[in-house]
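Re: that chain you flagged

S.,

Sorry for the slow reply, it's been a week of failed gels. I finally had a moment to sit down with the sequence you sent. For the record, here it is as I used it:
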Amino acid sequence: MIGVYFSGTGNTKYCVEKFLAEYYHSKNIGSIEDPYTAEKIKKNHEMVIGYPVQYSAVPKILRDYIMANPDIWKGKKVFIIATMGLFSGDGAGILARLLNSYGAVITGGLHLKMPDSIGDVRALKRSPEKNKELVMKAEEKIQRAVYFIKSGKPPQEGLGIGCHLAGLFGQRLYFGWKTKRYTDKLKIDPQKCIGCGLCKSLCPMENISIKKKLAVSGDQCTMCYRCISRCPKQAITLLGKRVIDQNDIHKLMHKTSYFVTYF
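Prediction finished late last night. Pasting the structure tokens below so you have them in one place:
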């Protein structure tokens, strides 16, 4: 089995790693940003794939990756992990339908609440203690899921028609258009930016460049929040006008033993 993921601030990668460790005692994991991951998928019949839900939808970068590699999914047995700050309805289901269209066989789905990644709006802000609780509950849920998978009863979260309707009417009908294309709304404050280049190195879309010693954003942002969460001067925003909290997985690494290496 292989683990495949797209992860913004590290939550999803952690969950996929934890799942593989519990299920298969394996570290065979690959990001969709790794050019060798497609070859790994070809060579493995079974996989778990994880991603962070955006507006009850699949991030465009992941959707594009699946569509750009149409031949590698046929016949693959796929278990889907969808991570979220609060609610998605059919987080696993919407990816399942896309993969089904390319011939994948969906074996189950799991929804995991994790620390919020959206750092420039006040929604879902939690204390470090609450975030630790979320992580512990997610770990426990992964352990239970693996137990039931091995018992022949994999979780089916997000895969039913009721979940589909919840995701559609709960978020996607109103906000799903935000993930249909990349955005040009990423904002970098030139008064705060020091041109360190960290955001450029983190961006999975190569959407940020350094010009005249300042970071400049293009129009290909996939809303992963890496740059916002890691900027040392809190100079970058997307949905809001100022950074309220930088929810980077590394930030919790020093406070709890649950986290290891990321990105």
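What I noticed first: Strands lie at 2-5, 29-31, 46-52, 77-84, 105-113, 187-188, 208-211, 214-217, 236-237.

Talk soon,
D.
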